[in-house]
Amino acid sequence: MNTRKRILSGIQPSGTIHIGNYFGAIENWVRLTREYDCFFTIVDLHAITVAYEPALLPKRVFEAALDNMAAGLDPERCTIFVQSHVPEHTELCWLLNCVTPLGELGRMTQFKEKSERERENVTAGLLNYPILQAADILIYKADAVPVGEDQAQHLEFTREVARRFNGRFGDYFPEPATLIGRGARVMGIDGASKMSKSLGNHIGVVEDPDAIWEKLRPAKTDEARKRRSDPGTPDLCNIFSYHKLVTPEGEIQEVVAGCTGATIGCIDCKKIFFKNLMKVLDPIRERRQALEKDPERVREALQEGARKARTIARETLDGAKKLMGLLS
Ligand code: AQP
Q1: What domains lie within the chain, and their CATH numbers?
Q2: Residue 149 CA, closest ligand 1 atom number
Q3: Which of 56, 176, 197, 250 gets the most CB atoms within 10 Å of its CB?
């Protein structure tokens, strides 16, 4: 019997994974597979809460699987599956809908931001997104959920849903802890908002190195540093926040000294970051290329993942239905 604690986390199939996803979540997920019984899901049912192209969705889901496996999620060490392949998530979502007050949903930051962007298409699905996310987590009775800081509010919401269910029907769902990754909130290359696929301010994990450099070259730095001879303030520079993710400590100190003493320019600083970033991304890109040649392996991993996930999900769902008084 598996006695390890369990975690679940999800990623949207909304385009290539970026370094915010990687340092905020995926890198942590890979580490956690050594300690926890891990479930990772590609949340296609969340992706359809905003405008999307149906013809492109299957490819995006498959690519999300490729990206995450290339980034280090090994199906031998964790369970990877597509959310819609485990229909128990949506059934539990309905049950949880019926214990969640409507007022709390409208207060969610992500809903406010996305409904602002999607003015023409604010669906009930977008409003109910956090309830489906609660179902994704609670259906595995997950002990913890590793995410970036942007998801902290949704996790607090999940704990409230669990408390409400337990208070009404009996102690059933554990309240999952939040595990925030090393890059809790990686900013976009615009330096203005969090790195996000939908904002187009991202550096892709498997993006072509030349394309990454072309994005980095004009990327925002310390605004007060107009000329190379101006001393800079690393803590005010977005590129310096990126250095902390990949640059070894000794080299970081050199960057700080070079920037504050104006002996290196912003472009030199970016070159050092780019070199260190490539040390992390090169092997991922190579694994991605190898996996592309073996799509059957990815498909099989997803099928096996869904099979394992469904066994647990079914059991939790049946227990919840019984507690709620539904006739079996
Ligand atoms: N900028 C970020 N910094 C740190 N962590 C981040 N995460 C996302 N962006 C950052 C974390 O990555 C995991 C998977 O994210 P997701 O794709 O499921 O959803 P998201 O947060 O909506 O990511 P995007 O890029 O912002 O997607 P779009 O633009 O499509 O909505 C999560 O654990 C998240 O915290």
Answers
A1: 6-185+295-323 (3.40.50.620), 209-288 (1.10.240.10)
A2: 35
A3: 176
